[in-house]
Amino acid sequence: MKKIIKESLKQLVADRYLLIVISLMLILSVVAAIVIGLSIHSSELQLVSHYSAFGITHLYRDQWFYLSVFVVFEIVVAILHSIISVKLLIAKGRSLAVLFAWSGVGVVLLGWITAVAVLNVWTPL
After folding, report:
1. How far apart are CA 1 and CA 13, in angstroms?
2. Which residue among 22, 46, 78, 124 is least crowded, i.e. fewest CB within 10 A of its CB?
3. Closest Cα partner for 35 from 111, 124, 125, 105?
4. Which residues on adjacent β-strands are paired with residue 47?
5. Residue 61 contacts by C-beta under 8 Å, 6 or more apart in sequence?
6. Per the confidence metrics, is the pTM higher than 0.70?
């Protein structure tokens, strides 16, 4: 197991562009998690947490601690995309690994935008 991890890290360090993209994704997710985490505060107001396909009359509401899921989501997505990108680098080559890493950056950004939108609806500035 140690040998596999060591070899994976060597290949990642050898490909500096992929290393930079993965580092960007990890830094972006940590910053997003900190910003979202500091924006959450306890409240008796319920927020819209889940939407259904049946229109406005079917909104589901949840308590404020539902927003902590966004913090966990940002970190988990970045870690999993990083691991899968390194695996793709080893198995399929550089181009697919870079594409997957950039898609991870996109998912982190979309999660951050969604969390900010929910926070703005819940506690407008």
Report:
1. 19
2. 124
3. 111
4. 62
5. 46, 47, 48, 49
6. yes
Sequence length of the chain is 125
| CB-based contacts of 70, cutoff 8 Å, min separation 6 | 36, 111, 114, 115, 118
pLDDT digits (tens, 9 = 90+) for 71-98: 999 999 999 999 999 999 989 888 999 9
**What tokens does 27 get?**
């830094």
- Give ∠ CA 99-96-111 in degrees, rounded to 5: 35
Sign of the C-alpha dihedral computed for residues 62, 111, 74 and 42 taken in this order: negative
And the tokens for 30?
């940590």
Helix, strand or coil, per DSSP, at residue 7:
helix
